[in-house]
């Protein structure tokens, strides 16, 4: 199979779909790989390294999309990329379709097979291709929050760790999954006063064990969110409903009740954000202020540490990518129900229920089960 890797074009996105080491794996399995020039150059993966791994270098993205049977990316395709996709081609990347009607319409129109990293599952009910970026984003959320708490960057001038004689800053993490756990680890490491809210009592018990009682674990209710957010210096939104739009956990009135100069970091912004006042920002222009509260809503947070993120992502995506190339996409998905769960769009049909629930009525499409779509 001919595998293509275009250069990412989203604002300040330096990650790349395949590292040279991953390319070498595909080549060793008898596949050809074409990589757009400078696709990984910004993070130390030169064209020469890709050539040494066995790839061919393309001078334009158009060449990659025109030739490749399997397109491997990181971020969701931008409109001009969607328009280069075609029937018979497979796209393997993050999609986050539920809050993105434009991309959804374009992918339906393309006729391509579109597999979303964020909805591939595993035997434990986890999301193995989302997890590495969730780990990165969780850790970055506290770094970013600490930075924007500094007075010169619009914050209240609070040091999360405090100093002897001065109480540490208060960090509220809403959601105790992969993002929330990693955010809590970083905040605790800085010496902050950390509280995690979650709606799962078993998960709260696990977190209590993980942190040995050093982090407060609280069952999430509207009252708890209101109470703890009003006292927090930094709030990290870390909730996820797989493939669906994120629930809005803090409304405008609750945000208005927060301390002036406090910081909101919305890690769920890829799925539409979990705060009413959230809107996607970029690494170039990462924050804005609403009601004296600093909002950090960068939609590709892990892109800020692109080298680490790329290697972590490739570790997770490579086995599934090889299966797609070795068996062909249809057979690979039929053989693996977890990979099949990643299928969101196939030849004009939407195959992921949460996307249909979010956009079907608006855009006029219905739900087709993945196996039924592949059989057609």
UniProtKB/TrEMBL annotation:
Its EC number is 1.4.1.1. GO terms for molecular function: alanine dehydrogenase activity; nucleotide binding. The keyword Transferase does not apply. Pfam families: AlaDh_PNT_C (PF01262), AlaDh_PNT_N (PF05222). Substrate binds at residues 15, 75. It catalyses: L-alanine + NAD(+) + H2O = pyruvate + NH4(+) + NADH + H(+). One of its GO terms (biological process) is L-alanine catabolic process. GO terms for cellular component: plasma membrane. The active site is at 96 (proton donor/acceptor), 270 (proton donor/acceptor). Residues 4-137 form the Alanine dehydrogenase/pyridine nucleotide transhydrogenase N-terminal domain. It comes from the Bacteria. Keywords: NAD, Nucleotide-binding, Oxidoreductase. Residues 149-297 form the Alanine dehydrogenase/pyridine nucleotide transhydrogenase NAD(H)-binding domain. NAD(+) binds at residues 134, 198, 203, 220, 239-240, 267-270, 279, 298-301. Belongs to the AlaDH/PNT family. This is Alanine dehydrogenase. It comes from Alteromonas aestuariivivens. The lineage of its organism: Bacteria, Pseudomonadati, Pseudomonadota, Gammaproteobacteria, Alteromonadales. The gene is ald.
